[in-house]
Amino acid sequence: MELLRSNLAIEPDLQNFIQFVLTAVSRLGGNAFAASLAALEMAQALRTAGAATGYPLPASLKLERRALLVAWGENGHQQQIAAFSEAPDPAAVEQLHQYLQQSTAVSDPAQLLRRNAEMERFLNETRARTEQEIEAMQAALEKRQEALSASIRQAETDALTGLLNRRAYDEKLAHAFSRTRRQKTEALSLLLFDLDYFKQVNDEFGHQFGDAYLNKMACAMRAAIREEVDMAFRFGGDEFAIVQFCDETIACRTAMAVLAEMGGKVSIGVATLKPSQAGEIDLADFIKQADDALYEAKRAGRGRVVISSCVPPGGGGCTFFCPKLTGVANSRPE
């Protein structure tokens, strides 16, 4: 049976509650001295739980068979205050219940004001603490996101040139291809590059010169595309790629710019997916057509751009267009 329920927001609430507990022990014929010791322990436990801090800690006084208990908090903590040799008289229990209810029905106005002030202070402190914790959590989250982004960038970046690597190529090309097929509003071009006679460059001039040559290629590619829109990749060795959201005319212009910057010593294959073809060609066919165009550029003498005019599988194959490169050498590197 619950004899009393109270919220112990301020110190007077706690003191009154302890006094009611001791009164209950006395009226039910319990050991007042033992109950006083138990009440001291209870008071310490209640303060630890947040009583008298402005926090409205709920506490109740219960009679269960021959034991008088105090329970508090949402987790159901409880402590025995007194034990009786036999069950208290029901009439005495009812009278005690009525007495406790009447004693807590009317509160001192000054105490009400103090309780309200303490609870307001507690709420303001809690709000400020929560805001600080949220700010700290947001800062920690942003820091982790930055670390994660840096880790992803590192995992997707070629260490020598700073271009995206093969791992990133597979993912980002598939995403770009799906976007083009879904939106059907802009063309997508894939440009594949192979440095001509790069092994000879390394053999004749050394790997340090070869690394500088690869970085020159990376700079030429970056200069030819739109930052944060198009993407440049290095697969490893002397193989590179660009994924560009454009038609074959612009893709050809991009390829020619890279070819000119590299002194005409790059073989380039280009495939373009037009919005009207978005539902007719799959990713594997798209890559194959760019690869076929690159092979044709190398077979035709290197140092040139070959553009594949993509058609659906079974539609007669790809046709190729090789721009005439005025003044661009197709020979080995000087």
Task: Describe this protein with a few key phrases.
alpha+beta, Alpha-Beta Plaits, 334 residues, four-stranded antiparallel beta sheet, 9 helices
Short description:
This protein is α+β, with helices and mostly antiparallel strands and 334 residues long.
Layout of strands and helices, then pairs:
Elements lengths: L1 E6 L3 H17 L4 H18 L8 E7 L2 E6 L4 E7 L6 H16 L3 H47 L10 H18 L4 E8 L2 H8 L1 H18 L6 E6 L2 E6 L3 H14 L4 E8 L9 H17 L5 E5 L9 E3 L13
Parallel strand pairs: 8-9
Antiparallel strand pairs: 1-2, 2-3, 3-4, 5-7, 5-8, 6-7, 9-10
Helix pairs in contact: 1-2, 6-7, 7-8
How would you describe this structure to a colleague?
- The protein has two domains: 2-106, no CATH class; 166-321, Alpha-Beta Plaits (2-Layer Sandwich), CATH 3.30.70.
- It is an alpha+beta fold.
- The protein has nine helices and ten strands.
- Helices cover 52% and strands 19% of the residues.
- The termini are far apart.
- The strands form two sheets. Strands 6-7-5-8-9-10 form a six-stranded mixed beta sheet, with helices on both faces. The protein has a four-stranded antiparallel beta sheet with strand order 1-2-3-4.
- Helix 1 packs antiparallel against helix 2 and helix 7 runs antiparallel to helix 8.
